[in-house]
Amino acid sequence: MGMDIRITENAAVFTGVSCFDLNKSALCGQAFRWRETAGGVIGVVRGTPALAARDGDTLKVNCAGVPDAKMWANYFDLYRDYARIEKEVMNDPRLSVCFPEAHGIRVFNQEPFEALISFIISQNNNIKRISGIVERLCLKCGSPVPFMGETLYAFPTAESIARLTEDELTALGTGYRAPFIKKAAERVADGYDLEKLKDMELDEARAELKTFPGIGPKVADCILLFSLGHSDAFPIDVWIDRAMKALFFEGNAAKKAELYEAVSALGEYSGIIQQYIFQYARKLGREGLSSAENRT
DNA sequence: AGCCAGGCTGACG
DNA sequence: CGTCAGCATGGC
Are A222 and A119 in contact (CB under 8 A)? Predict the structure, then answer.
């Protein structure tokens, strides 16, 4: 506890930050634009390029100019007490196996439109390919931002994506998702307010997102968890499905209602716990998970 | 080479 | 409520 912030001409330095594995968090598949470099991870958030690095309990965010420290603190979720959440998870015999693999994962607060488009792209896709598509999209129509001798690209505005043709979107490798992306961008460019979903009840916000073509329950929950502050949104993809089956149901297939019941019993931070489970599941792999059943 | 991926949709029972 | 094919694309 007791996080402290110091701002210099071109960096924000946060001390007293515990439970934060920056590289793991940035590269685990919740966000798609961070790249590992010698000094940490480099990326662009809300149009601002940065090189972030951890050292002990310190997080340093190097920017091109005076940083917006509050923006970065919010992005990296530094105001949340992860030690308490990790402790809770460690004390749950079904979940403690997720450590140490999951230790230090934090759930970032991404820009909502970026999350909307990124997770539409993510459906029935793999993380490496999603990252490539998102990067090509930024190169195609995002604003160039010079940083440390190279040119990075901001995530595009809704207007600039809406201007692309379906053929142009397909050429980026988006496949059948191209019309979904275009329609979502058009809707936001046309004034749809994603921010209002922050203040809605989870069920209501989820139903709202599902009115977008190409967004079902899983993608909706990703957007809600990773960009709209709904820490109890619980995206269930193939990995989480396998892991929940192994950890909570002794390897047996669970009915959907039972699964949702187990999820809601995890409480208001279930979405963050979901991310621990996801990390664990991907580390173990399919066969690892199936052999981990019934092992407490 | 063929299965799979941070799934959704529509059809069908 | 549950299942199932089809969907583009390329990583592995």
Answer: yes
